[in-house]
Amino acid sequence: MKIIKDLDQNFNDAFQKLSKLEKTIAPDLMLQLYAYHKQANFGNNFSFNSGLDVRSGFKFNAWMQLKGMSSDEAKEKYIELANEILKENKDS
User: Fold this and answer.
1) What is the reported pTM?
2) For residues 68 and 72, what is the distance between their CA atoms, to the nearest angstrom?
3) Where do the structural domains in the chain lie, given as residue ranges?
4) CATH architecture of 2-91
5) pLDDT in tens, 38-92
6) Angstrom distance (rounded) from CA 51 to CA 39
7) Do 24 and 89 form a contact (C-beta atoms < 8 A)?
8) 50 φ/ψ angles, rounded to the nearest 5 degrees
9) Does 8 score more than 60 pLDDT?
10) I need a labelling partner for 22 at 20 to 30 A (CA). Which of 28, 59, 72, 83 fits?
């Protein structure tokens, strides 16, 4: 059970840290982060009711591409990508 708590804590920590950098993260990376976050929290329970704008379509498509990925795997992928982004930001 401790491993799951650690994963959840690391996931939440990564989300909080990235939230402060949101405006400096490239749009393609933001899209990946969005998809991992949605898959981690909602799994394959896709819902698309954000209207018909292009941005929402891209976000929904990115999320649907993760169909079948477990919540834990999505959290791990999110954390990995977040750590890469945070490292790049620190080195800049």
Assistant:
1) 0.85
2) 12
3) 2-91
4) Up-down Bundle (1.20)
5) 999 999 888 766 566 888 889 889 999 999 999 999 999 999 999 999 998 886 5
6) 20
7) yes
8) -95, 15
9) yes
10) 72
